[in-house]
Inverse folding.
């Protein structure tokens, strides 16, 4: 070995030793935050950071309750190639002169939050470890669903998507695409304009499918719905054609290549560069909307949960399993968000319903060994509890300020007036609630979108939440030094 090599080797060894000691002294946790569009990711991360860095009331978070948590602060993120989560502007939106909910997640972003604590573990005390660095990675759940594309060939994917278009609730919105497809020439030469038009009509269909109540549709490709930095990219110029027409000629071959290119240049890099580096994961689910949406919505939610669980617990021999290597996402928290839309007396029922759905999905995804937990969560509580007496019966209600334009029983709200609402009762028995939703016999809950509450901007008063502390405790406590 030449001298420079030896020097290099010695330097490498010293760096490695220093790094592993450093890893003990300043452990890092990569926390993935996902969920389909509008599930509540942006609000959750903003509330999480605000509640840890400023005044908080988090009694179920052990380090906060015991006083071990000294300080939490933001630091520059480690990956410069990932956009930063726009915490400050989200905070401004929520606490500005006319408070509004922040802009939702549209692509991947990251934020480093460091917690400084009085070490509680013997090892922590021994090595003088006093902090945990948390890299929060926010990414659209739609991208996770792309994992399913990895086990399908183009023909299988086409068959699946076209079958979904045939479903009666999709027939109307799929019509423009199906009409375009009927005249699309698969036997001729490749016409770039016709191809992009077909892809554009397909994308328009996917977007409409997403808007069907309750907006859960789990059809991909994920980047057609949430393109991130791929807006307008040629990687998004493919669409399904009837499998029987793929063999017609050059067009079918080209579409197959584009489908494969999407997998190679979009799906694999996301899973390799971001997803496989996560240690923990929270999956936000708008379960209330799914229950209200009936059997189809419930099916979609089940698909989404199963897809998420198979991604978190891939088989060791699958390509994703190989990407993970020895790493594993060791805890997954499923959170039913916006729980402040129902009274606290129904939160346990909501938690149980999501628990039943995730357990079932875990069994079907053969991911039963994943350490999972379920919580009913309101990252920001926009309502408070009240009661109403109707025909001598006391009903648990919620009170808040519906967003301007929301309407109920013929009344349209102006965005300034508070209203008390009886959203309905969730059956205490989760199986009953699920069975009712499956049979489209669920007594719909009344939902209104509420404006954000009056939130403190000075950093001195805690923000109202529901069970955010339970979520934080499950995700972070065991990793604190
Ligand atoms: P994302 O697409 O997953 O980033 O979703 P957002 O975090 O932007 O949330 C979408 C919308 O859901 C928000 O604009 C709010 O209207 C609503 N929302 C999210 N979290 C909460 C919550 O904790 N309470 C209430 N009342 N509404 C919420």
């Amino acid at each position: 070995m030449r001298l420079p090599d030896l020097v290099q080797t010695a330097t490498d060894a010293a760096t490695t030793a220093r790094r592993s000691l450093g890893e003990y002294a300043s452990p890092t946790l990569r926390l993935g935050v996902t969920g389909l569009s509008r599930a509540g990711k942006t609000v959750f991360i903003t509330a999480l950071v605000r509640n840890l860095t400023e005044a908080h009331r988090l009694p179920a978070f052990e380090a906060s309750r015991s006083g071990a948590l000294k300080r939490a602060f933001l630091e520059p993120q480690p990956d410069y190639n990932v956009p930063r989560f726009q915490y400050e502007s989200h905070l401004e939106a929520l606490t500005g002169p006319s408070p509004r909910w922040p802009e939702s997640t549209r692509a991947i972003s990251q934020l480093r939050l460091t917690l400084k604590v009085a070490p509680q573990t013997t090892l922590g005390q021994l090595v003088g470890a006093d902090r945990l660095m948390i890299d929060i990675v926010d990414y659209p759940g739609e991208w996770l669903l792309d994992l399913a594309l990895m086990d399908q060939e183009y023909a299988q994917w086409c068959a699946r998507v076209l079958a979904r278009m045939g479903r009666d609730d999709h027939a109307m919105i799929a019509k423009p695409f199906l009409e375009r497809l009927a005249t699309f020439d698969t036997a001729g030469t490749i016409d770039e304009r016709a191809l992009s038009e077909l892809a554009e009509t397909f994308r328009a269909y996917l977007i409409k499918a997403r808007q069907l109540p309750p907006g859960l549709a789990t059809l991909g490709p994920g980047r057609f719905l949430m393109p991130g930095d791929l807006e307008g990219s040629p990687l998004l110029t493919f669409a399904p054609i009837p499998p029987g027409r793929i063999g017609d000629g050059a067009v079918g071959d080209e579409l197959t290549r584009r489908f494969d290119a999407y997998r190679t240049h979009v799906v694999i890099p996301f899973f390799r560069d971001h997803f496989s580096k996560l240690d923990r994961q929270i999956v936000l689910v708008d379960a209330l909307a799914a229950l209200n949406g009936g059997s189809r919505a419930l099916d979609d939610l089940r698909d989404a949960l199963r897809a998420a669980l198979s991604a978190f617990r891939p088989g060791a021999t699958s390509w994703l399993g190989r990407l993970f290597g020895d790493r594993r996402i060791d805890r997954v928290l499923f959170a039913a968000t916006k729980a402040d839309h129902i009274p606290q007396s129904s939160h346990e029922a909501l938690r149980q319903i999501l628990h039943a759905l995730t357990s079932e999905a875990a069994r079907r995804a053969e991911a039963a060994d994943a350490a999972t937990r379920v919580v009913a969560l309101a990252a920001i509580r926009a309502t408070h509890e009240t009661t109403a007496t109707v025909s001598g019966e006391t009903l648990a209600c919620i009170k808040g300020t519906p967003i301007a334009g929301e309407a109920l029983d013929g009344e349209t709200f102006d965005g300034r007036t508070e209203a008390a609402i009886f959203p309905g009762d969730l059956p205490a028995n989760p199986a009953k609630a699920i069975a009712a939703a499956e049979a489209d016999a669920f007594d719909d809950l009344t939902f209104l979108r509420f404006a954000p509450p009056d939130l403190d901007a000075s950093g001195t008063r805690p923000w109202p939440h529901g069970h955010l502390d339970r979520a934080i405790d499950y995700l972070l406590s065991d990793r604190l030094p």
